[in-house]
Each structure stands twice: as structure tokens, then as C-alpha cells.
Amino acid sequence: MDFFEITSKHINTLNNSEKELYNYIIRNMEEVKRSTIRELAAKCYVSPATIIRFLRKIGFSGYSDFNAIIKYTNLNIEENTNPFVVSQEKYRIEYLKNIYESVRVLDEEKVDKIIELLKEKPRIVVMARGLNKSVGHYFEYIFSGLGFEVVFPEDHFFRKMLLNGIRNSDLVFFLTYGGEDAELIRDIEQLNIKSKATVVSITSANNNPVQNMSHINLYVFADYIQFNEIDMTSRISMISIIELIAYKYMEKIIE
């Protein structure tokens, strides 16, 4: 069993402080697996005793047990970066697990904040490049259908012009799986300097610049796939999160 299989049944029992610890571990697995319990406690600004209580609450007997599982989980991720070195049956399981984990760990408090912002009927701006543009088109279709003004500047120069006219009331979504796109990072920097618009990002769970520069970040899981030097990593988990936000908005409007 890996980290997510062990902890899945305990997520709903966590309080806000424990969710922060859980999110830190997910986003910094490579760093956490090399840390002692005291180092992890210092990074999370808690005591080692708090870490032990937290780990027991999410299904581990202690820090050694937790650390061994974290290393095993990371090894699995690295081995499955190219899905075609494993059987298609096994990859299908991993593919479904990524979608399941993305939906299961979705932070409801963050989604509720987004819903409250959507109730104000803001203009929605979607920023995406590369393969993420396909997700941007889907986003534009869904939220336009919900009655929102959606602006999706696909071109570099269109994005640049739009950033000069960003409104403080805009809700700006950055869709970038890796979260390290240099152009989008510059866009967020410019946006935060020029306006008070709310930035929402959907990225991978690993710690990344776009995530850290956003007011609200939602993260997803997927196995990184590159073929002929082209990014072909699945965006299905990202689409799932977008749909869940849309469906919850519809539910609130009906209420």
C-alpha cells in the first residue's frame, strides 16, 4: 500500500491544522522523505509530538513507518512516469487512482471560497498554454453556459494586452499542470502588481511557483508523460475539478 491508500479513509477526520500538514506532505514529498521528524516538525512549525499524533491519526504507527511508505510512494511515481513500461492493466489502475485522489483530496473550503466569488458574477479570465489550452476551451464552454463572461486569451500578445486591462473584480484561473511555466509566472507577477484580481490556479501537487503565487490553489495528480518531446500528460483530473466547481455552483444557485 502507498501513502494515499493508507490515508484515504482518514481524510474526513482531519481538522484545519491537520489538513495543512497533510497538504504540506503531499506537496513536498521529495523533501519530506529526506527529513527527520524534528526537521519536518520545524518546517511545519509544530512539535515532533504533534507530528506523531497526526501520523497515527492518518493510519501510521510512527515516523519510521510513515517515512518508509513515503519512499515507496515516490518510487512508484518515478517508475510510472512512462506508463508504457508497465502493463496496460496496471496503468489503467494508476490512471483511475490519479483521478480518484484528485477528487478525494479536493479542499472543500477552497471550493466554497470560489463559489462565493462566482456568486458575485465576476468576469472570468482563463490563462493556459500548451496542452492546457484544451482544458481552457472546455472551461470557457462550461462557464459561458452558466452565464459568465469568460475571456480566454490563447495568444501571447492577447494575454499581454488583457493584463493591461485586468479589473480588480476579475476571477483569473491559471491552468498549468507543472506550475513552472515561465511566461505564466510573469503574467501572475504582472497581474498581482497591477490589480487586486483573485488568482485561482490548478496545478500538480508538487510545490511550484504558480501555486505559491495564487490566492487559491487546487491541485491534481497525473503521471507525467512525454512522447517525441511533446507533453501528453493527462488533464482529465484537471477537467474533473473544473466540473465539480461548476456543478457545485449550479447546486448553490438552485438552492
Describe what this molecule looks like in 3D.
This protein is 56% helix and 11% strand. It is α/β, with parallel strands linked by helices. A 5-stranded parallel β-sheet has the order 2-1-3-4-5, with helices on both faces. Strands 6-7 form a two-stranded antiparallel ribbon. A hairpin with a 2-residue loop joins β6 and β7. α4 (37-43) crosses α5, α8 (108-118) crosses α13 (236-254) and α9 packs parallel to α13 (236-254). The longest helix is centred in the C-terminal third of the chain and has 19 residues, at 236-254. This is HTH-type transcriptional regulator MurR. Pfam families: HTH_6 (PF01418), SIS (PF01380). It comes from Neobacillus rhizosphaerae.
Q: Can you give keywords for this protein?
A:
about 260 residues, alpha/beta, 5-stranded parallel beta sheet, two-stranded antiparallel ribbon, 13 helices, 7 strands, about 10% strand, transcription regulation, HTH-type transcriptional regulator MurR, SIS_dom_sf
Shape: globular
Task: Give the low-confidence spans.
Answer: 75-86
The largest beta-sheet arranges its strands as 2-1-3-4-5
Number of strands: 7
How much strand? 5-15%
Percent in helix: 55-70%
Report the biggest beta sheet as strand number plus sense, adding barrel if it closes. 5 strands, parallel
Amino- and carboxy-terminal Cα gap: 41 Å
Sheet/helix structural class: alpha/beta
Mean pLDDT: 87
**What is the alpha-carbon Rg in Å?**
19 Å
Number of helices: 13
* Element pattern in H and E: HHHHHHHHEHEHEHEHEEEH
Pfam families: HTH_6 (PF01418), SIS (PF01380)
Domain SIS: 114-255
Domain HTH rpiR-type: 1-77
Organism: Neobacillus rhizosphaerae
